[in-house]
Amino acid sequence: MIADVKKSAEQKMQKSLEALKVDLSKVRSGRAHTGLLDHVTVDYYGTQTPINQVANINLIDARTIGVIPWEKKMANAIEKAIRESDLGLNPMPVGETVRVPMPALTEDRRRDLIKVVKHEAEAVRVAMRNIRRDANAHLKDLLKSKDISEDEERRGQDEIQKLTDRYILEIDKVLQVKEAELMAV
């Protein structure tokens, strides 16, 4: 039973960590990457469709994303969708390709982005602690119903704490990498 509680907590913590990585990938540094446009949707015959389902997205160079629509008439809709997204990008149509240059980041903007990134990481740390609290409460319930002994409950809490510590270290590592990426000129 303790193994089930631990496994459930670990799965939830892993999902939280993955969600943090996805959220941080949306915070842009000066470099271009194709994942930046993943959450942008385009009006495709009346349906909001992810941009990667109507076009090929690739890197032209380190600071420019190229979007090549599968249908030529979609170029204007793709340009409009990228321009209206919350990314602050200014796409330019060049023939059949939509070029998306990444603007250079100022020092102040980099610091603001680092604050955002730290806030995201802290929110996930809080989520990890909530998962730990729920797992410990579940262990206490098992103890009350006499399904496990006090020693097993204490051992289970220790294992949950070690798991929490490990995932919080992972969050810190991911945060350090993102901060370094944002501060790189």
From TrEMBL:
It is found in: Cytoplasm. Pfam families: RRF. GO terms for biological process: cytoplasmic translational termination. It comes from the Bacteria. The keyword Protein biosynthesis applies. Residues 20-183 form the Ribosome recycling factor domain. One of its GO terms (molecular function) is ribosomal large subunit binding. GO terms for cellular component: cytosol. Its main location: cytoplasm. The keyword Cell membrane does not apply. Keywords: Cytoplasm, Protein biosynthesis. Responsible for the release of ribosomes from messenger RNA at the termination of protein biosynthesis. May increase the efficiency of translation by recycling ribosomes from one round of translation to another. Belongs to the RRF family. This is Ribosome-recycling factor. The lineage of its organism: Bacteria, Pseudomonadati, Pseudomonadota, Betaproteobacteria, Nitrosomonadales.
